[in-house]
Amino acid sequence: MSNNYKSWRALLVAAMLLAVGLTANAYDFMVDSIFYNIIGENEVEVTYFINQYNKPNPYSGDLVLPAAVTNEGVTYQVTKVGNYAFRTSPELLSVTVPEGVTALGNHAFYDCEKLREINLPASLTVFPITVAYNSPVVNINFAEGNPNYRSVDGVVFDHDMTTLLLFPGAHSNFYAVPDGVTTLGDNSFNSNEKISIVSLPNSVTTIGNSVFYSSSLVTINLPANLTSIGQMAFLACYDLVAITVDSANPVFKSVNGALFDKQMTTILQYPLGASATSYTLPEGVTHVGEYAISGAMNLQKLVLPEGVTSIAKAGIYRCYNLTDLSLPSTLRSLGDFSLAALYDIIEINLPDNITELPYQLFTSCTSMRHMKLPSELLTIGEQAFLQCYDLESVDFPSKLQSIEKNAFVNCDKLARVELPSSVSYLGYDSFNTCDNLTWVTIGDDNDTEEGCVIDSCAFLASSKIEHVTIGAHVREIHHAAFSFVDSLKVVVSLALTPPATEPGIFGYFGYNDKKVLYVHRAVLEAYANADVWGDFKTIVPIEDLGDVNGDSVLSIIDITVLIDWLMGGGGEINTALADINLDGKLSVADATALIDILLSQGE
Fold first, then answer.
1. Where are the domains of the chain?
2. Of 1, 290, 333, 602, whose Cβ has the fewest other Cβ atoms within 10 Å?
3. 24-156: CATH homologous superfamily?
């Protein structure tokens, strides 16, 4: 990577750090060590001390907020507790909010490490469930008469007691949801590190989105009347060893602790804390649901049997210890990051009928070394192989049409990229910062009708590239496509019309004498007169390759001269024409290649 690129990035990072370091007062005035913002003619909200997240606020002890406050002769009603108002108040034990306050801001009690109790008024109408995130609250209490919310033993419900809204983070490790509750609200037990068992009454019909996300839930039995489970309801529950379902439930079924639909066609949730190291999906399953096997920490081997046709978004995601994944020939569809962050997987074999690799499919599969792409593949999606650091080689199929942006960024061990002429689009930053990439071929002499666009920064900062072949079908190359590629020696363009260009394709600092451009003799003048292409110091007709002594004839003499030169005999040779294999250096391989050419011509 060039010093210019590093300097540019350093300046950007410095500017960002400077911006983050700026601080500003977040309050209009202070009374009795409580900070306020004026939000109306005679209204204020309680706010934090300073606009910097890593600074502690001075609130402490058992704090009782006033209903009104006077500053400079003006009396204000306290009507709101603002966003992050008490955040990071390490000595705050409890807070009592007065009547007249109608709203709590998001994360108002965030990261108050000793906070145990919050007392809220009947006037409150806005209660975000993130209010006490990352704080060990035991009880959240509402005053009687609140028309929207009520609390029972410190747990928050809607007024009618049909929806459980928030279970405080340090309330208890076992909880029996009251009979009559029909819904566990979105995120109601989210990130709860204390809860291990929740007993659900038969009245519960709905579990919302992310209800138990990242909680310490160990087991749960789903009642007969449950008909709906939201997205990510059990995601990141790494202690969960079993989900069981009432046999009378018409929608869901459990087999060996895993949750399925009643027809056993879709796995909905694998118990992430199960001790098994190997798991095979039951016969008849056709679909892996969203996040269904995401984060199964103990799994080392996973088998999807024949008949499985699809894996939904994040279906098999972040299974850190998985080393053996068997996919069936029936598989047709893959969701975004459905096979991402499988850190120990070395190789994944996809069936040939897969036509698209979706967004972040293999992102952070850091041990994967080789990928033979499906023969029917048409599209490699955005960031599909992002940060696959150990990926050494990829076999690209002959039908491939597009590689989207950032597809192979930071594939540090990828050495060669050889793309077929079927490729019509090479996306922005698609091979950016592939630190060991040396050889790039984008098509050949096959001039397809559709043509190909190489987008901006496609190979930016892949600094070890030495050879680039641009196929006859390439029509456009956008700016900085090969910029900060300091090792580039050879560029071969097979297009009979110089591809349209933008500034900085091969760098912004000119071309040194080591870079050689090879084109067909018939279009030599066209390239010499074209923008960007004409900047090459040396442009050589491809047809003249092998004419080592420069006499315009290929013969045994050229071999003799080249071998003599390689053995240190000196003499004059045309090094650009002697580089038969176009690898930017002269070696015995060039002599061998020249012999093959002459033999094919009957010399």
1. 24-156, 556-600
2. 602
3. Ribonuclease Inhibitor (3.80.10.10)
